[in-house]
Amino acid sequence: RREYNYYYGFPGIFHFKLGNKYLNYNRVSNPVFLSYRFTKDNVSGQLFQGRIDRVFEINTDFNDLFKTCLSDYPFSVIRNKEFLDWRFINHPEKKYEIWGYYSKVSDKLKGYIVFSRENKVAQIVDIFVVHSKEIIKYFILQLRQMLHKGRIRKIQVLLPDNHFITHTLFSLGFTRIRQ
């Protein structure tokens, strides 16, 4: 008999308990649910080192980004063009927005964020960025400005507690909340 390890995202608490009981789920990392609430004082007007653009079509730059960042995401699904098209662009029921962060110097894709909007909340469902605190910071600050202009009042995301992105989000004013 062969045994396989299977890793899949972060199930909700109910599903985790069910999986733990019947399928012997184990935690890879503790998930942390983060939230950022806009106030009149916390929308930054800083200069940035790159630009963000809305992505309507996934191209091979996403394959290159995945290959570049693979060592920083050891438990990741293969986030190539085919997967991203299937998961986000061609989703039959949910509408997602994909935003890319591009280097000011080389114009190369350095990361992307996928989210859905509902009731003035942007729920980030995927974030994939090179391991650079500065790039994550500039990306999030620009995204926050864009979302605030679009009448979003809160940003939420579920991440592993020990991931480099989580630490940077804390430094940008995201707070831990109960799921």
Question: Would you mind describing this structure in some detail?
Answer:
- The protein has 179 residues and is α+β, with helices and mostly antiparallel strands.
- The protein has five helices and seven strands.
- Strands 2-3-4-5-6-1-7 form a seven-stranded mixed beta sheet.
Which helices and strands appear, and what pairs or packs with what?
Blueprint: H1 13-23, E1 31-37, E2 50-55, H2 60-69, H3 81-89, E3 97-103, E4 109-118, E5 121-129, H4 133-149, E6 154-160, H5 164-171, E7 175-177
Parallel strand pairs: 5-6
Antiparallel strand pairs: 1-6, 1-7, 2-3, 3-4, 4-5
Helix pairs in contact: 4-5
What is the oligomer described by this structure?
Answer: single chain
Order of helices and strands: HEEHHEEEHEHE
Which radius of gyration do the C-alpha atoms yield? 17 Å
Main structural class: alpha+beta
- Cα distance, first to last residue? 38 Å
Mean pLDDT: 85
Helical content stands at: 25-40%
Shape: globular
Main beta sheet, described? 7 strands, mixed
How many strand units? 7
Count of alpha/pi helices: 5
Strand content: 25-35%
**Which spans have pLDDT < 50 for at least 5 consecutive residues?**
4-8
Query: Spatial order of the strands in the main sheet?
Result: 2-3-4-5-6-1-7
Provide tags for this entry:
7 strands, 179 residues, 7-stranded mixed β-sheet, alpha+beta
Would you kindly provide a brief summary of this structure?
The chain has 179 residues and is of the alpha+beta class. The protein has 5 helices and 7 strands.
